[in-house]
Design goal:
By secondary structure, the chain is mostly helical. It has one domain. It contains 5 helices and 2 strands, in the order βαβαααα. A two-stranded antiparallel ribbon has the order 1-2. Helix 2 packs across helix 3, helix 2 packs across helix 4 and helix 3 crosses helix 5. The longest helix is centred in the last third of the chain and has 22 residues. It is globular, with a radius of gyration of 14 Å. The chain starts with 8 loop residues before the first strand and ends with a helix.
């Protein structure tokens, strides 16, 4: 597998799929955020943790954080963010980042990605 180390990743990967399935959205209408990580050493826990936080922040932007008390909207946004984060972590394909993801979420990528497909 190809390991990305310097190029920005497009966070809208899973968000586009999720939104298209749930809201009938056109992929062109889905917001995208580029997350740069060329300044990080993904071979270290510290570098991977910083990237994980950047990915989480970008997923919140793409999926939206509803300012509402409607539980259905909150649940959709949380599901979108979780699926987006899992897809992006898998796309980066960095073992230490995957470890950070698993430690923070308690999930393995294989389990989460099976849900996305």
């Amino acid at each position: 597998m190809k390991m990305l180390t310097k190029n920005p990743i497009r966070i809208a990967i899973a968000a586009a799929v999720f939104m298209a399935l749930t809201a009938g959205a056109n992929a062109a209408d889905v917001p995208q955020v580029h997350v740069k990580y060329g300044d990080l050493n993904l071979g270290t826990t510290a570098g991977a943790a910083v990237l994980y936080q950047r990915i989480r922040g970008a997923a919140d932007v793409v999926c939206g954080v509803p300012d509402t008390r409607e539980l259905a909207q909150i649940a959709r946004a949380k599901a979108c963010a979780a699926q987006t984060i899992a897809a992006v972590v898998a796309a980066v394909n960095a073992p230490v980042l995957t470890g950070v993801y698993q430690a923070r979420t308690g999930e393995t990528l294989g389990t989460r990605l099976a849900v996305i497909r």
